[in-house]
Amino acid sequence: MYAIASRRTMNQSRVQETRERAEAEFWPRLRAAPGFVSFSVIQGEDGVTTAVTVFADKADADADAFAEAREAWASSLNDLGHHVESVEQGEVMTHLTAATGADS
User: Fold this and answer.
1) What is the pTM of this model?
2) Structural domain count, the chain
3) Angle (CA) 6 31 27, round 5°
């Protein structure tokens, strides 16, 4: 698996608007992206959020269809005043999920 992690200082006055727009504009495209595995947003105590998107492999993360959606959403986040702190990508070393009834 392959992950993209981006950290942003959020414009607190536009967080609700951001969530609503993400629901309408970004998350549907992300869910439909080939190789999409998971997406999480972590709100840090320091006010910086970290978004982690996991794909089956690097080729899926780099695919043109998703790259276009990612770039458009990044532009929207910038316009909303959410400032990029860092973006990192790499192979996922460990990815655990909860056990299901069949696994227990």
Assistant:
1) 0.84
2) 1
3) 60
